[in-house]
Amino acid sequence: MRRPLFLVITAFTGFFVSGIALADAELSPAGAINGKSFTLVSGDTVRLAGLEAPNVEEKADGMHSARLGEPLGEEAKAALHALLAGHKLRIDSVSTGRDRHNRMLGQVYRDDGLWIQGEMLKEGWAMVYSFPDDNADVVKKMLALEHAAQTEKRGIWANPYFRIITPEETPQFVNRFKIVEGKILSVHDYHGHIYVNFSEHWKGNFALFISRKYADAFAPLNLPALVGKTIRVRGWIDYHAAPVINLTHPAQIEVE
Questions:
Q1: With left for phi above 0 and alpha for psi between -120 and 50, is residue 54 left, alpha or beta?
Q2: Which structural domain range is residue 172 located in?
Q3: 101 & 179 share domain
Q4: In 204-227, which positions are buried (b, 16+ CB within 10 angstroms) versus exposed (e)?
Q5: Residues 138 and 250 in one domain
Q6: pLDDT tens digits, one per residue of 33-76
Q7: What whole-number percentage of the chain has pLDDT above 90?
Q8: Does one domain contain both 179 and 133?
Q9: Distance CA 167, CA 171 (A)
């Protein structure tokens, strides 16, 4: 069982120590970058683990290309800023505590105990974006908060752009993180790779792909037994001869 790490930044140097369990570790936020990340007074950047939020418009710089904004991106950023303002923070990190962009990564809590990820989901300013090494119990709590916000159409869920889409709509959302709902019509195993199809004529149509690297993790779901059932699946929509979501862990699938 992976044990959470606590990241500590000292008030004077900005130096952080990972892998040390210090319950009183506190960080000072400087401001939100968007609805899923923020800066610290130390100059470091923190990425809220397990969340995806609307993009804000970003101009190109020496390291990053320009990014178009999405509906309610600025509102999500403002919501995160308001939650952080005037508080010290603690981060329970995941994995190494850093993502591929060298941002601190973890579940974030305010000094009054408020769970930042939970509040962003509760208010409807973010959706769940989990990974294989995330704590399964935490992901379940996050999904429950997301579902409640969806039902009550809070935040982003009141905007049609963030609706749950059908398999037929996926070509419109390539390179976007979306939740897709549809009926499974077939499941195929090809040399250990698994394909989940939503159309009788599967060539050129949306599918789910599970690499043999992750296939064992899906065994408890018994995917062939789900043929004929409606599921919801979440992830980034890629395009390889057809729209596809690459699955890495079972929390990406919800059976209706």
A1: beta
A2: 164-255
A3: no
A4: ebbbbbbeeebeeebeeeebeebe
A5: no
A6: 999 999 999 999 999 999 999 999 876 565 565 667 899 999 99
A7: 77
A8: no
A9: 8
